[in-house]
Amino acid sequence: MSLLEKIIETKDFLVEKGLTEPEFGLILGSGLGELAEEVENAIIIDYADIPNWGKSTVVGHAGKLVYGDLAGRKVLALQGRFHFYEGNPMEVVTFPVRVMKALGCQGVIVTNAAGGIGYGPGALMAITDHINLTGQNPLIGENLEDFGPRFPDMSNAYTADYRKVAHEVADKIGIKLDDGVYIGVSGPCYETPAEIRAFKTLGADAVGMSTVPEVIVAAHSGLKVLGISAITNFAAGFQSELNHEEVVAVTQQIKEDFKRLVKDILAAL
Ligand code: HPA
After folding, report:
1. Residue 194 belongs to what domain range?
2. pTM over 0.85
3. Quick one: which of 3, 11, 18, 82 could link to 102 by a disulfide (CB 3.0–4.6 Å)?
């Protein structure tokens, strides 16, 4: 089956389940999936039941699709994403974004836990731009002309209007929201201190193992994007050692602010 046929099969399956009018896709990163529990009138589908869908294997990722009302908007929330480091092909990593587009979403809010280069643990960062250092590109292969051009412009991958709204909302509710550049790597190992020094020189403020592939596919298809990083640790070299437990623990501390912020942004978009 071609990629396009898979997208259509999955879209038809989800429409059949009642996902008829999503406005926003919500990709919830490590430890941030709880927000999906606040979705009202929810239709919840296990990833395992969705045709052509990947499998979620990381601690802190639930593996459920939740559709319904959040802050007065119709959202399609992913509790758990697919990472390249899990062995998923880029087609699988970015497939949910393709399906969000096919279902008629106007935009996506992509969130992640990230290591801080310019910011420290506990910071929330609106992504202004990214650097793709994964060594991969999810658009390699046949171009889906119905979605976007062969050589898509990435100058405005992160939608300025969405970020403006995010800042207005953050100011209004008194949550500090920084701006910065996210550098995406493949993982799964954390970076070396030398790599982090290099990334700092390259202009990165945060580093992580997700988001970049999904945003490339979203921007290709004309989906608007808001990216938010929850900084969970100082990147390598700025603190003595790194571990996933700390990433999940710091996310627990940030998550109330994170949830409030994303809900209020959704209401304002
Ligand atoms: N590096 C890469 N990915 C991450 C980090 C980090 O320090 N923290 C959370 N995700």
Report:
1. 3-268
2. yes
3. 11
